[in-house]
Structure formats: structure tokens, C-alpha cells
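Convert to structure. Protein one:
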Amino acid sequence: MTRNIKLVLAYDGTDFCGWQIQPDSPTIQGTLASAIGRITGEKVLPQGSGRTDAGVHALAQAASFTTESSIPSENWVKALNDVLPASIRVVEAADVPAQFHARKSATGKTYRYRIFRGAVCPPFLCRYTWHYPYPLNETTMQNAAAFVTGEHDFTSFAAVDPERDCHEARSNVRRIFESKWDNSAEELIYTVRGNGFLHHMVRNLVGTFVLVGKGTLQPQDVTRILAARDRAAAGATVPACGLYLVSVEY
């Protein structure tokens, strides 16, 4: 009997070339597929809720795959963690209906970006935060973040996606439910929740908000940048190391 299994994964993306499987490069999807194959003898390609980039981390990435294996769902966590590298952990596993698809069934996602603000970044944090010790006006950054809530065309904040079919017409309109900055110890943390995200979108938003914090832009400039629908109008892409996929909603 064919079963559909949903996994929830946590991973340190530092040593991987992103989610998407690639020839001769370590990826999360490829490593997970290999682990499933070792356990079941099947050749499967697990589908993720989205493709995290090289160096991006996840606290709760969702993935799904079909299998003929009779392994009870509660045993998948231990079985997979026994063969996966320590940088990838399965934290949940469950049987789901046949029509469930980790990406197509998702209704929302939350991302978090961490900026370490101290003068010296501890070596134990350098893989997991972006070190930016320079002056920033956090109030104006908070104000700027509010301008992206609601439904907008985020073309100005989207990198060209190398995996997207150039003949495939897709909308760059997304709805953002929450966009805010918080302080935690010596970190400045951006949290954004929406119904979907474009390639590099969160990192480009953070890069733009940092320009606001520096005084190069004003908070209301975010509205102008959105209207421009031009990647050149927004800020630079910040490093991948500070970005986390926090959760996926279904």
C-alpha cells in the first residue's frame, strides 16, 4: 500500500548548497532522499515546503514523500536520525492523506532573520547570525517593516530564481500577515509571516530595512520601492547565515 509521509525537519544549512538536489553538491533534499533510500530501498525524492538557499537554516521545514514501506510513522524519526548527519534532524513524522503535498498544500510560512549587534561576534554564533555592529536606528526599521504588510507585488525584493521556468508565468504578489523587528540580548531579530515568499525575498527586505536604519532611506521609501517593481530599487541581499525557516502552516 502506498503511503504519504509528512516530515518536519530542523537543519543547520551552513554546509549545504540549499534544499534543492544538485549533482555533486551536498543538499538537504539529496541527503534526506539518500537516507530514506537506505531505510526502504526505494528511490524517492521528498518534496519540501520550499527551497531554502545555501546556508539558510530551518527550525521546522516540512517535507513529504510516498513510500510502500510499512514502517510505523512513529518509528520514522529514529530510523532517519540514525542515518542522517547530525546537522539534519527529523523532529516529527506522520501519515497524511494522499493529496497532501508539502509545498502545494502550504498556506503560510514564518521566517526569522538574526542580526548580532555586539562589537565582537562569538565564534559559536557566527554561523547563525549576521554580524552587523554598526549604528542603526531601530525605530525607523520597525516603522519600515510595517509598510510591507498586506498584499503587494514584491518584484523589487525578488532575485531571479534560477529554478523557475522562464516560460512559466507566475505572480510576484504575496500577502504578508506580520512584519516586525524585536530585540533579544545583543541581537536584532526580524520576523515575517506570509502566504508565500519569493527567491531571496526575506534577505532583500532585511537589506532594505538596514538602509532605513542607516538613514540612507526613509521608512516611507518602502512604498516607493514596492511600486517600482524593480530589484535595483531595493537594498542589497544580506548573508544567508542569519535566516531561518521557522514554521510552515497547513
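Protein two, convert as well:
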Amino acid sequence: MNPQFLISGLLLGLISSIHCVGMCGPIAFALPIQLLPKQQQPFGVLLYNVGRIFTYSLLGLAAGIIGRFLLVGAFQQWFSILFGITILLVSIHTMVLRRSMHITALNKWYNALQFFIARRLRQQGLFTLFILGMANGLLPCGMVYLAITGALTAAAPENGMLYMLLYGLGTLPAMFTITYFRYSFSLIFRNVFKRVGPVFLIMVAILLILRGMNLNIPGVSPYFYQQADNTAISCH
């Protein structure tokens, strides 16, 4: 496994933190942390985030399995370019029109998860926080989809899982902070984070496009050449 590829998962998680604070902040503020004894509250916040990262890891495992058989050789390059262009267009659409693009099927999934989360928010206990974290990891999110795309190119299930694990760990510092110190963050502060999210998405989209163009940029484009050499599937 290319260490630069794994590092990119961690860095993507750190970048995603800005987006996570803006989009998932309301859920983090609504968590029933205050119902726990004072000494258990930090552990409860950590357990909630462990649930998120656990879900990301499972998604990475599934993406690695799928990518092992679908994304072979040069097709990875075209997939990266097309996905990067898609993210770029969606991000520009969001910034210009100041509204997100919605997919009906995903909206139905989002509404079902919101209902599930709303019911669990009325409960208390450490296990409830873990379940809420797992559910949060399944919420529709452009940055998570982007990370899953990276896991698709991992060429092996365990590598896809490790990529998404590192992505989740990258989001941990910001998400832990905003959850545990949620009363210290104002609405204006959260809205600023939400607005700069598309800017970082554009940066990552450009990175994806560059990765697929094989421009011989160290740590960016060469990765696909290495993958193409190592992922050929033989029937013998």
C-alpha cells in the first residue's frame, strides 16, 4: 500500500473537518451528553466519534471489495477525473446559488436516518451515543462520498478500510472539540465553517483531476501508474 495514498486519507479527513463542523454541528450540539455523569462525558463524546469512524471503516471495506473488481488499470484515472469534475461542478453550483443539490433517493434515506437519530437523541447512555455515531456516519455527505471514492481505488478490501479509518481519524479532533465544547461555539462561527466547505471541496476536486491526468506530479499523479501495475487480475 502506497503510504502517500494513506496519508491522503488522513489529510482529506482533516480538510473535511471544516465541512463536518458546519453540516453535522447541529447533531453534535443535540447529543444527550449532559445526561451523563460529568466524568463520563468526555468518554461519551469519544464513543460517539468512534461510532462514526466504525461506520466509515465498514464503508471503506465495502468500497475496497467493489474497487478490487471494478476499478482496474487506467479506468481508475478516468474515474478520478470524472468524479473530480462532478465535485467541481456541484461545489460551484452550491457557491453560486447558495443551496445544495439534492437527490430524491438520498433525501429519503436522509429523512429516515434523521427520524432514527431524533428518536435516539431522547435516550441516554454510552451505547446510545455509539449508535448515534454509527448513524451519523451513514448520513449523506459529499466529503464522505469523496473519501469512499478514494477507498474504491485502494485495490484491496483491507486497504479501503484502512483508508476510511484514517479519514475518520482526521475528522476526530474537530468533531470531538465541537461536541464537547459545543456551548462555546456561536451560530455565526458554525455558519462560517459551513460556507468555506465548498472552497475546500473545489480544492480536493482539482486534486482528483490532477491525480487522473498523470502529469508526473510527485505524490499526486504517479499513484495511478503504480496501481495499474499492481492491480491486474489474472485468472491463472
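The radius of gyration is 18 Å. Confidence is low (pLDDT under 50) at residues 222-236.
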